[in-house]
Amino acid sequence: MGSARVSVSGAASRRAFRRAPRRRRPPLLTLPQRLAAFLLLVVPAVVLGVRFFNDTEDRLNAVLRQAAPLAEAELTRALGREVRIGALTPDLSVRTLLRDFFRRASLGVIPVTATDVAVAAGATFGSSPTLASARRAVAFVSIPKLIAGRTNEAVERVLLEEPYLLLVRDRTGRLNLQDLIKPRKGPPGKPFVTRVDVEQGTLRFVDFASKVRGGQTNDLDRIDAAADVGARSIRFTASARGKPGTATARRLGGPVSAEGTVGRGTPGQGEFAPGAGTARYLANVRARDADAAYWLSYFVGEQPTLGQRAARADARVTLLAPRASARAARSPSVGCSPTK
């Protein structure tokens, strides 16, 4: 009996303990105290961070303002023709910094913007037309790669907005852009690699080596393109239309697109040299509503036996140029096939 009473009283005490209301602990800080702590701890940190960002941007702006004339002078000396740069600025904002902070691939990458960039076709702008220009050019520079000495990879991407290019091919097939590339003295270094994006570009192509008699000029605008500049080759895609008001607009009634590769370097020279069987370039071009007679004559030559003087068609053209050799032909191979 005594042990039964102990058991019942123990169960009753446990039930009474469960029914007993729990006492709430008073909050460590009241709502006004929490607001005061937030104002004292968080707000000063944010203010200091914004001020540090503004000071950093001001310093970068000052450095780049001083660097713009130096960049003009250095590029003019290196290219052998006048170069103009309107301004250099770091394209920074709180939004871009916060966005890039959570992206591992873009962490430590600073965009540097150059506006109103222009390169003369000759020694000066006074004696020659414009070879190339861009309303805005942005280079995305990786600070960690610069610190690590990987300068050939430091510019991860280049964005060109509304660029213009004057491309000229002489009777021997040499392009005017080849004059900008000077032979390097000493052993070849690591090739420059990056990605280039073009938005709303314009191209004037003056060709003295086409199959049509006399120099031919064609103008393209609304050019959107992307190129991956690799160690051994450049892969590209592009789309454009004939510029309104020019002869090209009549020769190309619809859009034109292209994709392909361009080889870099000389086979057998350097660690990153291409193979001996690599083509100099390979391009697949598609055009809609093209003047078939003109473009067939342009690439292949006059074909009087075809008797097509006013035919228009959608077409696909493949351009292939093998590596130059002592016995190889200088002109590229051309394959044409109408699509309708």
Fold and architecture overview:
By secondary structure, the chain is an alpha+beta fold. The chain is built from six helices and eleven strands. It has an eleven-stranded mixed beta sheet with strand order 1-2-3-4-5-6-7-8-9-10-11. A hairpin with an 8-residue loop joins β5 and β6 (216-229). The model is unreliable at 1-8 and 326-330 (pLDDT under 50).
Q: Topology, please?
A:
Layout: H1 2-19, H2 31-79, E1 83-90, H3 94-101, E2 109-120, E3 130-142, H4 143-147, E4 155-169, E5 194-207, E6 216-229, E7 233-242, H5 247-251, E8 256-263, E9 281-291, H6 292-299, E10 312-321, E11 333-338
- List the uncertain runs: 1-8, 326-330
The number of E-state strands comes to 11
Structural class computed from helices and strand pairing: alpha+beta
Beta-sheet strand percentage? 35-45%
- Biggest beta sheet summary: 11 strands, mixed
Any idea what the shape is?
A: elongated
SSE sequence, one letter per element: HHEHEEHEEEEHEEHEE
User: Order of strands side by side in the largest beta sheet?
Assistant: 1-2-3-4-5-6-7-8-9-10-11
Please report the distance between the alpha carbons of the first and last residues. Answer: 108 Å
Overall average pLDDT: 78
* Helix content class: 25-40%
How many helix segments?
A: 6
Rg to the nearest angstrom? 33 Å
